[in-house]
Please model this.
Amino acid sequence: MSMTICTGMILAALVGCAPESKPSPTPTPAFASEAEAFAAAEEVYRAYNDALNAKRGGDAKADPTALLTGQILDEEITAAQQLESAEIKLEGRAELLSFVGVRADLSGSVLEVVARACLDISGVRAIDSSGVDVTAAGRSDVYAVAVHFTGDRDALLISEYNVLAEFPC
Model:
């Protein structure tokens, strides 16, 4: 709440500072509904997948980590370093098959959204330094993930990402 300016210490002590008659602002929710929060989360997840695809396609400017925060950011950086040290490059595109909002907590100062996504990674391959495809044999090409988002009134970021073996796509 803003206060009117009182001049001088004595005047302040004698008269005091009176609050202006303006009402204090009420925080506005970042999203008016769960549906809006789920749509924003899907937009972030699609942007993340697009950035991963661009990076695997050779776009040096693509930065999927810009959409991550917390532990998942650290894990992704570590995984990228491990691939680099093993001289393995990921190539190809992953496709988002579905995205479904599960829950959204919009009441606190930190917003939380959880969603489930299905990905098709059949187009992604691991290639070693001699150009040999070293993609794991028998891997599942389609899988489900639980994606957690956290954020504030300005942006959501991916904060957790878990494969859901028990959930079929």
